Amino acid sequence: MNDSDRLRKYYAERAPEYEQIYFRDVPERRRELADETVRLQKIARERNVLDIACGTGYWTSRMSQTARSIIAADISPEMLAEARAKEYHCPIDFVRCDLNRLPFAENSFDLITLGFWFSHQPRQSYEALFDSLIPLLTDTGLIWMIDNNPPAEGPDHESSGTDSQGNNLKKRRLDNGMEYIILKNYFVEDELRAIFSPRFHLKRLTYGDCYWSALLTIRQ
What is the fold of 27-156+183-218? Predict the structure, then answer.
């Protein structure tokens, strides 16, 4: 089983319990997520949004408070089933598709969002990801991302090694006791700037205690 298949199987199993990550009893985490929700709702206002790797629809539902329309895309039917069960406040379509083969027309979106996906993107395929996203944006379109900072302590701090391309591997245990080794990269602030700057203007990079978020525009 390759990394992509392993990750897909992991999220299929994890879908019913996934949103536990948003409701941990850790005040700093909840504060940073709440602050980012406010920022994202301002960014999404009156925009046509493509929410890639939408998962259970946590960020999708929050954007729907202000967005003009949303297409929520994910490869996992289990995740999409969780997302469809939520309430939304703007027109929304759910699309099952592979992130590497996005079936959308060029210049279709004012905003593309990737919540907690970039850490799963193999380092060797960043340029391929950017190449697939940029044509979908309008000239003034934005890309928003949020993801985890390196864990400082506790069981999440330990790595399960790296693969041949230097991608970090992590062990994850589900509520049912099943364990998976998945690709999960972490970044320091300067590394994120180095990754994004050749292709994008960084309108904002927020690097908190628990999470980072970035707002990007295309370099013309």
Answer: Rossmann fold (3.40.50)
